Amino acid sequence: MSDRSFSLGIVESAFTAIWNYPKSFKIKAHGDNVYQFFFAKETDLIRLERGSPWLIKQFTIHVRRWKSGINFHEAARKIGERIGTVLEVDLFEMRPKELQIMKVRVNVDITTLKQSIRVASPAKQQYEIQLKYEKLGIRCRCCGFMGHEMRNYDTYLTLSASNVDPLLAWRADLKADQN
């Protein structure tokens, strides 16, 4: 970890050159300067592990095997169960190809939509997951209720007429893109 962030491109080009252009080398960014490397041959991985730590622009980089130990489908199912009745869990590849998302199809009570939920990892680290909904009908960003839009909500109209900026309680991106 470093106070300085490295872009995926910088890390990829630096390690590709340092490691002598390993065949089918790929890299995936996980945020907070955490990167996952993929190799076609186990021998490349062993060579790089034994050579660790590595130095990039005066920063020490430690390479170790990825040990997730997490069943992502089961984790997604557990998260979905906190929202409603889980119908389906699946992994989808997005553009660019390195990006994957987990979708959980859930029957929910639309009167109690959540914007986010907090979960803990096995190591007790807390995360907040921002939720998005597909096939979401008309919803007010002021009160969160379904059936009317913010522009038709009396409180919003009153505040707007008084030149008061209403505090919008609900994120605009709560509805998932259908691309």
TrEMBL record:
Residue ranges of domain DUF4283 in the record: 4-73
Ranges annotated as spanning the membrane: none
InterPro entries: At4g02000-like (IPR040256), DUF4283 (IPR025558), Zn_knuckle_CX2CX4HX4C (IPR025836)
A Pfam family hit: DUF4283
Domain Zinc knuckle CX2CX4HX4C: 113-153
PANTHER family listed in its UniProt record: DUF4283 DOMAIN-CONTAINING PROTEIN, GLYCINE-RICH CELL WALL STRUCTURAL PROTEIN 1.8-LIKE
Name assigned to this protein: DUF4283 domain-containing protein
Organism encoding this protein: Stylosanthes scabra
